[in-house]
From TrEMBL:
UniProt-listed Pfam families: CUB, Sushi
Gene name as annotated: LOC107683390
Lineage, top ranks: Eukaryota, Metazoa, Chordata, Craniata, Vertebrata
Disulfide bonds: 187-214
Keywords assigned: Disulfide bond, Hydrolase, Immunity, Innate immunity, Protease, Repeat, Secreted, Serine protease, Signal, Sushi
Occurrences of domain CUB (ranges): 15-140, 187-299
Listed name of the protein: Mannan-binding lectin serine protease 1-like
Length: 386
């Protein structure tokens, strides 16, 4: 019974893999990896690992010149494994490809990052002589401008590759953000003083810049009230559960606040009731949304309608008049405008910001010369009779 127990222990010991792994660290820009004793048969019970690491900005290219490892179902016995960090890239064994075994043949393995490991294991027995493998590795520059799968490495506008790295630049009118890849705009405060106009996000209808805070200010004289109307094309990054946490528009007009606005639903028309409006547009460092456009108009305080004086006319004749509108008054031939002791051929008044006219409407009175001409016959008649 004791002999049987010892025999079982010996059999189990032969099936156990080596308890330690020999690790070889490689940092060269190129090199060769061979199985022990290559091109002679490799030893039993090998547990050997090559860890290749190169500087950031490079990948590692691995290819095989020779491969001959003991074949087994799913490479259970001897095998060569290639991985990067914890990501397994390939497992090889045998002399040729089968349904359950794979050999590298002419395949080239590229590491996804700047590290690559090659692990070689052999078990306690080899039924035949297997010559092992010979592999070569070399460093390859990563073209970050071409391989832009990782969003963190992408440039907003222009990407320039160089050996072991890349850098970003921006189109004219944009500035490179501190993250060295995002392009933002300098738009701290743009002031609009015309009575009507158009305002858009930068590059509209192309995606607006990231990491920007733009302030647009409409500033008109007191007496005007500003109306904003957003275009139907409205596309600002939003969130299905939280109100505008990323990008948004906020509007301040006097003591009123409108927004924040985001998403694809246009805010439409907004009557601000103020002569000054501040529009803040904020964007974070991600997203490819198209932005927004608005037109603004203004209306002034209304003045009461006016009637033309007797024997006079108003220009222009309108159903209503608002702040800054002018009216020019004239009289029929033989009449002139009188305002106090002054006489005018034409007279202009203006609708003011408080809704009142700048002056009363003068009267049209006969000119002095006309009155003198009409009294001359009676004067002559009186002289003849006397």
């Amino acid at each position: 019974m004791r002999l049987t127990y010892v025999f079982v222990i010996v059999i189990l010991a032969q099936c156990v893999w080596p308890l330690w792994t020999q690790v070889i660290h490689l940092t060269d820009m190129y090199g060769t990896i061979k199985s022990p004793n290559f091109p002679e048969s490799y030893p039993k019970e090998i547990d050997l690992q090559w860890n290749i690491s190169v500087p950031d900005g490079y990948q590692i290219r691995l290819y095989f010149m020779h491969f001959d490892i003991e074949p087994s179902y799913l490479c259970e016995y001897d095998y060569l494994k290639v991985y990067s960090d914890s990501e397994e890239l390939a497992v090889f064994c045998g002399k040729e490809n089968t349904d359950t075994e794979q050999v590298p043949a002419d395949d080239v393995i590229m590491s996804p990052r700047n590290v690559l490991s090659v692990a070689f294991r052999s078990d306690f027995s080899n039924e035949e002589r297997y010559s092992g493998f010979e592999a070569h590795f070399s460093v390859v520059d990563v073209d970050e401008c071409r391989d832009r799968n990782d969003e963190d490495l992408a440039c907003d506008h222009f990407c320039h590759n160089y050996i072991s790295g890349f850098y970003c630049s921006c189109r004219y009118g944009f500035l490179l953000h501190s993250d060295n890849r995002t392009c933002k705009v300098e738009c701290h405060e743009s002031v609009y003083t015309e009575r009507s106009g158009e305002i858009t996000s930068a590059d509209f209808p192309k995606p607006y810049p990231k990491s920007s805070d733009c302030m647009y200010r409409i500033e008109l004289e007191e007496g005007f009230q500003i109306t904003l109307e957003f275009d139907d094309t409205f596309d600002i990054e939003d969130h299905p559960e939280v109100t505008c946490p990323y990008d948004f528009i906020k509007i301040n007009a006097g003591d009123k606040e409108f927004g924040p606005f985001c998403g694809e639903q246009s805010p439409g028309k907004i009557q601000t009731g103020s002569n000054t409006v501040n529009i803040l547009f904020h964007s974070d460092n991600s997203g490819e949304n198209l932005g927004w456009k608005l037109t603004y108009t203004s209306t002034g305080s209304e003045c009461s309608p006016l009637a033309a004086p007797l024997n006079g006319h108003l220009e222009p004749l309108q159903s209503n008049y608002v702040f800054k509108d002018h009216i020019i008054m004239t009289c029929d031939p033989g009449y002139s405008l009188r305002q106090g002791d002054e006489e005018f051929e034409h007279y202009q008044i203006e609708c003011q910001r408080d809704g009142k006219w700048s002056s009363d409407v003068p009267l049209c009175k006969k000119k002095e010369s006309q009155r003198r001409h009409r009294s001359l016959p009676s004067i002559l008649t009186n002289q003849i009779l006397s």
